[in-house]
Amino acid sequence: MKIIRxxxxxxxxxxxxxxxxxxxxxxxxxxxxxxxxxxxxxxYKQLIEWYNKDDIDFSEVTTVxxxxxxxxxxxxxxxxxxxxxxxxxxHVNINPEHIHLxxxxxxxxxxxxxxxxxxxxxxxxIDLQLxxxxxxxxxxxNEPGAAFELGTHCVNLTQxxxxxxxxxxxxxxxxxxxxxxxxxxxxxMQARKVLMVVNGKGKAEIVKKAFFGPVTPEVxxxxxxxxxxxxxxxxxxxxxxx
Length: 242
Ligand code: GLP
Prior knowledge:
The protein is α/β, with parallel strands linked by helices. It is built from seven helices and ten strands. 2-amino-2-deoxy-6-O-phosphono-alpha-D-glucopyranose binds next to helix 5. The site of 2-amino-2-deoxy-6-O-phosphono-alpha-D-glucopyranose has 14 residues, from helix 5.
């Protein structure tokens, strides 16, 4: 585990974008595992800026996203498909055919999860997986208690996650989907490199627990302690307890 200390959110975003950029330069046809949430938005913004300066080229890159709400069509502004297009894909030269997210409208969970695992396999696995972390230690939507050995699966979101995510649904909890399809911990652990971004005081406790506490399914992110190439980029506040 490598911990990179950043001064603030902007610095965290630039450092993370630098690592992604290095990956794309070293392997232009790499597979990037991407994440949603507020934390990586600055990272995407920085990558877009460098793309606009002609410093990075996404034309050969393939992406697989971590998760998607079950039941939300792509076109829904709160879907992760929309999030990724608004915050990243629409602003760079990525080939739309190379973009993969679970299909939230396929309500046959078993079929969709199997299909998504096949997609990840067919592109050769993930070179670099970008992650944020939930306040309860979830990664993707692998909530506390999730088995470490799972591939893509359907989850019931915890009350804490529903509350944390209602800010994206006009603050209305009843609009937040209660289930999601998520890559499993097994898939995340199989990524050749894992990069987590974390910022703010609110994440300091969970960072300490996840990376300096015991490895346990009760804190899903804790398994990353065992990953051979895990980089944590945090701002001063998020890393203040370690
Ligand atoms: C959601 C996403 C996670 C993300 C988490 C934290 O639950 N599924 O991938 O890490 O939110 O989001 P934020 O970065 O906004 O704190």
